[in-house]
Each structure stands twice: as C-alpha cells, then as structure tokens.
Amino acid sequence: MALSRGAGNQVKESVFAWEGKDKTGKTVRGELRAGGEAVVNVTLRRQGIMVTKVRKKVYRSGKKVTDKDITLFTRQLATMMKAGVPLLQSFDIVGKGHANPSVSKLVMDLRADIETGTSLNQAFRKFPLYFDPLFCNLVGAGEQAGILEDLLTRLAIYKEKTIAIKSKIKSALTYPVSILAVAFLVTAVIMIWVVPAFKEVFTSFGANLPAPTLFVMALSEFFVKWWYIIFGGLFAAIYFFFRAWQRSLQMQRFMDKLLLRLPVFGEVIRKATIARWTRTLSTMFAAGVPLVESLDSVGGAAGNAVYLDATRKIQTEVSTGTSLTVAMQNADVFPNMVTQMVSIGEESGSLDAMLGKVADFYEDEVDEAVASLSALMEPAIMVILGVLIGGLVVAMYLPIFKLGAVV
C-alpha cells in the first residue's frame, strides 16, 4: 500500500469509490486513492464535484500475483490502448474483470496513482515486486517517444516468450526428478513393509539364502530401523539446499555453473539462457534504450550468474568504446554464430532485428531439444525403474525359485 506524508506522520492510503454530481448536475462516479473520506471530499470539491457517496473499497484476499498475471495484464493493456480505449478506462476494464482479487487490487492501485497525475512508468516503479527495471524502462521509453502502445505490445511478446521458454526448461527437468522421487517412495514402501513379510517366510526354509536376497534383507532392516532419519535427513537436506540457493550468492553462482555443465541438460539450459539474453537486448534496443543502459537489464533477465558476470564485463568494455561484437567475443560465453550475427547487425544498423533472429533460432533449438529429451527420457527412466524395482522383486523371489527347483 502506498504511503503519503502528512503532518510529519505516515498515513495509509486506501482506494475509495465515490459518486457525485458535476457542475452541470450530471451524475459521475469514480475511484480515488486517499488517506481518508475527508481527503476524498476536499479533492473532489476542488474539481467542482458535489459528492453524494464515498465508500472505502475492500478487496478480498486472492492468490499470489504471478508472472503469467503480469503478462496477461500487459497484453490486455496493449490491446486496449491500440484499440483507442483511454488509459484509465483500460485499467478499469482489466482490474474489474480479473478473476484474481490480488491482481484487481494491484491494477486499481496503479489506476489511482495515474489518476492523480503520476506517469505510467513511475506508477509501475512503486511495485518492484511485479514490475522489474526492464519493464519500467521500456514503458518509460514508450511514454517519452509517444509509442507506448507499440512498446507494451513488445513487452507482452517478450514476457510471453520468456514464460514459454522457462516452462519448457522446467518441464524437461521436472519430469525425471518426479519419476525418481516416486521410485524412491516405491522402493521405501517395498523395503519397510514388503521385504519384512518375505523375511518371515524365508526363516522357515532352514536353507541358505542367495546373496542378492541377503543384501536386500539387510538393506530392508536398515530402512525399518532408521526410516525416520532417512526421510527426515532427505527432506532437511532438500529444504536447506534450496534455502541456501535462494540466500547465498556464492551458492547460486556455483549451481548456475554446474547446471551449464550438466550432460544433455546443460546444453538446453545454455540455449535457453542465450535466447533470453538476445531477446531482452533486442527488445530494449528496439525501444531506443541506449546500449550501455540496456545491458543493465539484460544480465539479470538471462537468469544465470555466468551470463550476468559476462554481461557486466561486456557493459564495461562497451562503455569504453569497444564494439558489442568484440566485447561478446572477449566474454567467451557466446557461440560463434551469435557473435557473427551481432557483427552483421552492427555493420548493417539492424542490431535489434539480428538479435531477434538469434533469439528465434535458439528458442526453436530449445523446443526441439526438449522434445528430443522427452522422447529419450521415457525409455531411459523405464529401464532405471525396471532395474531398480525389478531387481528387488527378483532378489526376493530367488529363494522361492530355488525351493521350486528342489521340489
């Protein structure tokens, strides 16, 4: 919630819905963000409106505002502005028609800010949790150049492509992890409940058991005795790992480097990172944002510490007069094809178009790589599950097979 200073104190502002009559006697309605009903009355009276009703708006708590919500909001705002719908009315339509109350509140807070004369760019900057510097810089450039509708459309396309490529990478990584987690749970169930039941049967045989069976039974005894430590330790390790990843910059850098070196998956992540990097720079440059200033947003948008460090190095070199092509070559994290395309773009004066083509190429590469991975992982995971679960089952049935052979 925004704060305003009055009489040396911080006063919480709220959104008020009002109704009144203008100088011609016509009934008018609207919304205003203010510190109280008295402020609303005074403000509207100065505008020549005789207020008849003032009501504080109460928003229901809703779900978290996601990247998809912001992307949809950007697309809707761009579409309505291109259709000639006034800005405040566009905010009304988007805010009142959204299914998520949290998004509605965010949009109406933005609308109230803009209604008091704040620029769209400055209104967005008050909510950094939802609108990053790249978003605000592009909106600011659009306002200054008078091409806000075009810039919002570019932003919507950029965010849609970014979300699409992130979801593809997540799906590629989530599938094997979820299967392995299920395999672990199934194995634990077999070890804790199934194998002990077989053990009771085998003790009545009075014969020597095969080595694989003895190994599985010993493993089962360990699981039964220490299951709470195994599960507790595993969940604690996962929890603290992700907490450390979120809070420690060194941990993030280490993991980002490790992810790029993973067999098979590392190449997909690298291509996705390059696609985001080139798409961001293309969008910023096409909006007329200076190259050095654009690189401020590009590094963070890439989503990888290796490319963030490389971008800072590139920015330093470009600011001293080095060409972008040479700076990217010196960074040594971009394939030759990328630097060659950038070189052609710089020479022909169409850098944004060339960067866009590179982004399109790598996005297609990621699509193909994820599709290939999905096709390859299914049989590979079936083999792993077959060996793991099948091995346990065979080990437990070996004594029964031997008994049948003796009989």
TrEMBL record:
TM regions (residue ranges): 173-195, 226-245, 380-400
Subcellular location(s) per record: Cell inner membrane
InterPro entries in the record: GspF/PilC, T2SS_GspF_dom, T2SS_GspF_sf
UniProt topology in membrane: Multi-pass membrane protein
Occurrences of domain Type II secretion system protein GspF (ranges): 73-196, 277-399
Protein's GO biological process: protein secretion by the type II secretion system
A Pfam family assignment: T2SSF
Domain of life, source organism: Bacteria
A GO CC annotation given for this chain: plasma membrane
Keyword field: Cell inner membrane, Cell membrane, Membrane, Transmembrane, Transmembrane helix
Family membership noted in the UniProt record: Belongs to the GSP F family.
PANTHER family: GENERAL SECRETION PATHWAY PROTEIN, PROTEIN TRANSPORT PROTEIN HOFC HOMOLOG
UniProt-recorded name of the protein: Type II secretion system F family protein
Organism field: Duganella margarita
